[in-house]
Amino acid sequence: MGAALTGGLAACSTTPAATVAPRNLETRAADDELPSDTSPVPSPGGPPVVTGSFVSAKMGGRETRWAAVRPSGVSGQLPVVVVLHALNTNERSIFSSKLDIQSVLQRYVDAGNPPFAIAAADAGRNYFHQRADGTDGAAMVLDEFIPMLASNGELNVSTERLGLFGWSMGGYGALRIGALLGSPRVAAIAVSSPALWADPRNFPSRAFDSYEDYQANSLFGRQEEFAKIPLLISIGSSDQFFTYTRQWAAGLHPPAAFGTSAGGHTNRFWRSVLPEQVEFLGRNLAR
Length: 287
Fold this sequence. Notes:
- This is Esterase.
- The protein is of the alpha/beta class.
- It has six helices and eight strands.
- It has helices spanning 101-110, 137-151, 169-181, 211-217, 242-250, 267-285, and strands at residues 50-56, 62-69, 78-84, 117-121, 157-167, 186-192, 231-236, 257-261.
- The chain has an eight-stranded mixed beta sheet with strand order 1-2-4-3-5-6-7-8, sandwiched between helices.
- The relative contact order is 0.19.
- Mean pLDDT is 88; it is low at 1-30.
């Protein structure tokens, strides 16, 4: 992991001129498209993954799957990190052999660090805000999934103060949900390669339905909402979102921990930074 870039980032203008008109919304169509990963193979290592589902009114009444882990060898109620997944992935992807966050968590806890649980729900391709089709992945997480976690006796987690983690589409989602919940409810946010677009004329329709939708849900110009939330941003130096992410981070005061090293928008990079992210989330949840 490279050194944290906590200053010296050039600020950018985040308010579009009144005369700006939307351009072709698919000109950056490949930016956060990942190969479809609808049925990832569970990792043989780490604690067992608990799964379930619920009917989500916020997702159009569809059956919504979830997955969660508790580290082995610990008992009692644990804090929880809610994971927001990337495009073309699902609630199991963070626990698959490609990312295997549960093994990272188990090693962290086995080293004597404070334990916590990890849980994710399937938001499809929603992009974690209200869409034209009536679905809203963020509302599903806030109004249905987190309350379900709190009432699940098998998981035995506390949601009074929680962590957020996400990558790509889910990185944007974790940031947006963190802004909605705020501090002190959110103990910390860790994101990898957040799918952020700084140009209101150039974004894909899978992320925002219209220019007005972008204006309502873009995180540019809202950096003050993170002033009291510990934030770790990890992104590869060749990632297609690197420039936009740096621009967004430049508006954070106090600055976030911003880590970069060689890598792209890939599972290989995301897995390489998971130990630091798990440690960051655990440390802040324990405070």
